[in-house]
Fold each of these.
Amino acid sequence: MQPVISIQQLNKTYASGHPALKSIDLDIHKGEIFALLGPNGAGKTTLISIICGIVNPGSGSVTVGGHDILRDYRAARSKIGLVPQELFNEGFESVWAAVRFSRGLFGKAPDNAYLEQLLRDLSLWDKKDARIFELSGGMKRRVMIAKALSHEPEILFLDEPTAGVDVELRRNMWEMVRKLRERGVTIILTTHYIEEAEEMADRIGVIRKGEIILVQDKDTLMRQLGKKQLTLHLQQPLSELPPALRRDDLQLRDDGFELVYSFDGQQEDTGIAALLQTLAQHGIAFKDLQSSESSLEDIFVSLVRDRT
Ligand SMILES: Nc1ncnc2c1ncn2[C@@H]1O[C@H](COP(=O)(O)OP(=O)(O)OP(=O)(O)O)[C@@H](O)[C@H]1O
């Protein structure tokens, strides 16, 4: 399947000399919810801003719906709706005027029926004549989304959609994003909240210091989450595992002093008894053992941890 966004070897270094993005390769599939997860300053906003044509790329290429963002900027941009991190509140105009104006900016013919349905879907129809400054914070966010969708884009970017939003509003936002996906909109959201990625995303990408360090189906990631680990602290270090013990779920760590066994905690037979027996047969003794469960949070923290 043709990706709806294709990013190849994208680099960006700001004038300050700071390398914000390094050799990014990423494809976004049509109709998916993709969560880009990363700590402050990782490069999330820079990446979105380049795709949306707000920041110039350094080198590499980006296509949106097959259109190159530089050579074919207008065609590429018209496919995108962007809800930026910073919310700008145009004070005095009405909700209706704001969404009509946004649609016009993209050169689209007026379509009141489409805009009415959009405002209804976003539970804003009864506020259409209200001036934006009169609305609550949650409604203002929804107005930003309505504006972003006013020109019928196929792709919606949500940069930190629920930053500083209370739990109830966050859940409403998630509900709304799912409805948009049902309508066929591809959604890319950035977030600091692991819970949000876990709840919403079809796929998760993790970015750290300008590099994409993981892209994975959420379900696959969650299956890995169900894994438990048994760590055996060995009495004598091993330089390598005997052939009978070389397998994917067993790893030597800590200069050979630790043996880590990963297993599925849901299974009745965890394989621990058999493992301990094999260790005994090979004369591998341990002085201590501990078991632990990894969470998405653990995976994320260990991935983004600054090891330098
Ligand atoms: N206009 C700019 N000029 C110079 N450096 C910049 C500029 N914009 C961003 N940066 C730097 O590039 C890096 C990536 O910033 P970016 O805003 O993309 O990160 P982010 O992942 O969106 O962070 P946050 O989660 O805090 O929004 C940061 O180190 C930032 O200081």
Note: The chain has a mean pLDDT of 88.
Amino acid sequence: MFKALLEPFRHPKLNVGLGDAASFGSPRGRKPKATAKDWSATLRRIWSYLAKRKAKLVLVLVMVLLSSGLALLGPYLISRAVDHYLERDGGRTWGIFLITLAVVYLLNSLTSWLQNIWMIEIAQETVYRMRTDLFAHLHRLPIPFFNRRQQGEIMSRLTNDIENISSTLNSSAIQIFSSVLTLLGTVGVMLWLSPLLTLLTFIVVPLMILGMRWITRRTGPLFKERQRNMGELNGFIEETLSGQRIIKAFSQKERVISGFRERNARIMLSGYWAQAISGFIPKLMNGLNNLSFAIVAGVGGLLAIRGLVTVGVIIAFVEYTRQFTRPLNDLANQWNTLLSAIAGAERVFEVLDEGAEAKDEGAAVSLDHVEGTVKFSGVSFSYDGGADTLQDISFEAKPGEMIALVGPTGAGKTTLIGLLSRFYDPDKGSITLDGRELSSIRRESLRSHMAFVLQDSFLFKGTIRDNIRYGRLDASDGEVEAAAKLANAHSFIMRMKGGYERMLSVDGSGISQGQKQLLAIARAILANPSMLVLDEATSSIDTVTEIKIQEGLQALMKGRTSFVIAHRLGTIRAADRILVLQGGRLLQQGSHEELLQEGGLYSELVRGSSDSAAG
Ligand SMILES: Nc1ncnc2c1ncn2[C@@H]1O[C@H](COP(=O)(O)OP(=O)(O)OP(=O)(O)O)[C@@H](O)[C@H]1O
């Protein structure tokens, strides 16, 4: 029936175990493999986090030892009571026995409780450190990493995967350890009491081990795949939520929902198979447990009749047989959680292993002051080592100059800015700032002297004041307002309910595109950088706002070396130099008049834009 239920979602590639999901390290569709080597490496890394709380861990271990020991003592005491107190001493010391047994079980509960809360403390701290490391590392990763991945997929590692590790460390890890201990202890006591009965109990062990192995070999990759599917689904959700407007505008709702259904079905299938197969473990254990129970009871009874074992030993054995299979059962139950935690940890470590943005050179310096002379000499760059995206680019920008970048779409304007900001490094040639190679300047220092006003200026959830202050966190309220006035943003802010204290929702929805730009300009003015990058807005903004933005930009650019990615040629006539790019090559450079006289692509673009304006 379940199969029938899934049928509508089945995709030709949708065979469980043959993941079609996008993955980090592996190409789409590669079968996930979990080898013992991967696992031990992952466990070692988890251990490196746990080891930071060694002292507490030792305490936990002591508690585990005590509680396991006490758990073993119970049946032994009962056996002694049956054989000794009841048979030989006629029950006179029955009261003492009862009190001893009560103390043993009470202590057992106390030590279990202590081990539990201390382990939770260690687990929460460990997960806190992992999450912080992951987040901090994400912020050190180079831009190409983010170019290749969906945000939601990355988010999933910070949330789902870490959560899986957390729940395992909270309870399963210690339970597994305690189960192993109880198991070994039980076997030891059983051997001591009666090697023959122990051997009989063990008849089922090879079957248990074989069964467990068979099952976990199948479930390991499935759990890994489920985590990956979950990550993919999160990526899809994030993408479709942020692209809501486009989805609605192009009436793609049905397609998106069916895309979601397909991914969701993949999670359902991998989750179903992982749980269904691993859910068989406890059943198998139970069945085999009952079998060994029957063997011990039957054969033990025969042995007792012949006087080879006492009744007390048989009672203890029946209890130990249960105690022996209980940790095995627990192990089997915890196995699922452990498997999904290992799968989660692997995905967390995968990101942690991603190379961070190349470290600054050892001798790299921080700059206190920047004049703003930027020089590109014979710069070439390609994104993937293939054809050059930028080819042999040379130009110079003097302090305070406005440099406009023009050219058809895909010409390489954004890439050039990416090199200037050191999101990428050139393959050939050199870029200098005030005569210093960019690579010899610390990235953070370089970027602290730059400000960006982009087409889609990002605003955070917070007040308007906080959003402007993002440019310089120690700016006073007066400085924030002065920057807003220079940017021409003050008057619209004051007209809004709440003024500077008005809360903006996520990404500034609730204010217009033009107003967003004015806030971004105010933010950049407050940052007071020596260099500016402006990506001129292409979206249609009303003329009044556009004039305001232009005035704000003029105020912002004054005295700063500015790079303007210009989409409307009318606004760059005032540029000191215009760089005309096409297909990654710098075709022309000069002032508006010089370029017009020269003819070529620039005059064609100007003619084209005035034609379209006329049209
Ligand atoms: N992350 C990337 N990985 C690979 N190729 C890229 C990447 N970003 C851009 N490109 C390619 O590099 C070329 C230049 O792109 P770039 O974004 O610099 O152009 P642009 O002039 O800014 O275009 P537009 O005016 O449309 O913004 C294009 O062919 C583009 O497809």
Note: The domain at 14-353 is CATH 1.20.1560.10 (ABC transporter transmembrane region fold).
Amino acid sequence: MGAAAAPAEARTVTIDGVGMDFAVKGGTFTALDDIALELPEGGFTTLLGPSGCGKSTLLRIIADVIEPTRGTVDLFGMTPRQARTSGLFGFVFQDPVLLPWRSALGNVELPLEAQGVPKAERRERAMAQLQLVGLDGFEDRLPAKLSGGMARRVAIARALVVEPSILFLDEPFNGLDELRRRQMNVELQRIWAASGTTALLVTHNVAEAVFLSDTVIVMGRNPGHVIERRTIDLPRPRDIDNALSADFIAHEQELTQLLSGDYRSVVDE
Ligand SMILES: Nc1ncnc2c1ncn2[C@@H]1O[C@H](COP(=O)(O)OP(=O)(O)OP(=O)(O)O)[C@@H](O)[C@H]1O
């Protein structure tokens, strides 16, 4: 992994006092206020919250897409800029954004091309990732011939092929029907466990958050803040049947209650 050179004692992502103000017409809008979090290496952490609570903004700050107005982010002993330029990041977004003229394999090879990895190694590593996401045999397919679920697997393979230390997933399964989403959750859990990467997921889907996470960070709005940090101690690997267990449902209900409390506070204003 790219982070191997970081000091052994600094194996967390630490977010301290982070705030974000955006310039808007007539002043500033505070999207995030005083966020403090610690994400352990190799863990699966989810930011859960209603639309507009700043989940994506926080992810973008950690991933060095934007700079926070206040506070600091430390990724395994590095700044977000150092971590990004050291190639520690992998991204999976809502839309898989595959190049339509390149095969599944060609799309997964793309970040390795950008890194100047020689062709034979590129091919071997991309094939290994396609296998990991369950797409061996589909490497020559063009994106137009892939289902929505398959396209998302290609996007996950493309993110993992650079062996990222941290994998950012921003609503990666939006637009899939509920059954397909659950199947992809099972797959993502398996892929994440096999890759050993630290995962940070953004979702507003409570069941998805419970199913995948070691820790769920519940966020509220106005301005975006952390309501609760909840440990999901359900045994792994989790499967679709686990989602029917009393413990799973209890987590789901408690998280839903926390979220509806935040909705109520907005309605009451
Ligand atoms: N560049 C920007 N300029 C002004 N306001 C912004 C900007 N980016 C985000 N915001 C505002 O900050 C708030 C948080 O946005 P963000 O996209 O992070 O929320 P979110 O929780 O990810 O929502 P969603 O689930 O709908 O994606 C929103 O009110 C949004 O309108």
Note: The mean pLDDT is 90.
Amino acid sequence: MAELLKKTASGRLDFRRWGRSGTAGATIPAGLTFDNVTHSYGGPLSLDHINLDIKAGEVLCLLGRSGCGKTTLLRLAAGLEPVLSGTVSMDGRIVSGNGIHQPPEKRGVGLMFQDYALFPHMTILANVLFGLRDLDPAEAERAALSALSRVGLESYATDYPHALSGGEQQRVALARAIVPRPSVLLMDEPFSGLDKRLRDSVRDETLSVLKETGATALVVTHDPEEAMRMADRIVLMRAGRIVQLGTASELYTEPADLFAARFFAEVNELEGVAAEGRVETPLGTFPAPGIEAGRPVDICIRMQGIEISSKGAGTPARVMRRRFLGEVWLFELAVEGLDGIVRARVRDGVDFEIGMDVTIVASPRDVFVFAKNEDD
Ligand SMILES: Nc1ncnc2c1ncn2[C@@H]1O[C@H](COP(=O)(O)OP(=O)(O)OP(=O)(O)O)[C@@H](O)[C@H]1O
């Protein structure tokens, strides 16, 4: 083994030229389609009519609060849960629903979870080999060592998991997940067990490995920044439903509702009533396109969209509190005609002292007006 390890490490087996799919071969990414899918654990619907088309080779993040159905969606894709109604298809072929349930091992999917799930009594190499049982042993070992080499851990092949740090263990888990060349990789909060610094580097490395292998990836996270850093597209979920699907930039610049706007930034929330395509507030008049006159609305203003100045046009306000947060200052401002306070995140805030009278302006691109929805 040591000989093989040396040869492999120096011989630079090309990670991109493996053989057949499921046998450490070249990855053939699969598209994954959820068509009107519902699911229940016996009580209310945990997934409520999900329609989702994931393109082959796409990295898609499932984003949402705890309990919104992200893991359930992943389990349905893996074949670990049956659908209640609707169908799940891979490359246009139904794998769940319509009386069909293809078992997980036949789907060509790889799984990776937050707790690494490495077997503690097996060496790192044996852990990675675990997914390659159909291969000739020598070929499997070469493929496993090549995958370990790709994540920079080939020299740990004979060690046991306890000898590795959390970040290293997660990289082993990544090597194990990709070595059988799955068509679809399903990852459930894969980085949440790591501290922030490690998380960033393991995440970046995982993303480059994903792009290199070309596998379709479905990644669960509750962290919007993580989703924005990784995803080609993001699915924002709430209570078993899809709230919005789009690129990071689409979700940020055009949130579908108050829930979506809140998810990507800290916001100030005001209430008002629409009048002829606009709404008047103590912070100014904002467009409310398509909302009928007289309809109650929620106005949402991102904290970084509030500009403060010591003089000039704007709404008069008084600095009540301020706190230095490193990259920005967080201000709390009292505004005449408004019951609550307005919060602003400002880069150059040192000159605005507590008690000072200032003016504030909300930048239009950070203001969103939504017809009131009882769910919010
Ligand atoms: N095994 C189970 N039995 C019964 N109910 C379950 C089971 N697993 C999940 N649920 C429920 O189904 C819903 C969706 O759960 P799911 O785990 O998919 O959400 P999630 O978004 O992944 O949450 P988290 O981020 O906390 O993992 C929740 O209401 C949850 O309580």
Note: The two ends are 59 Å apart (CA to CA).
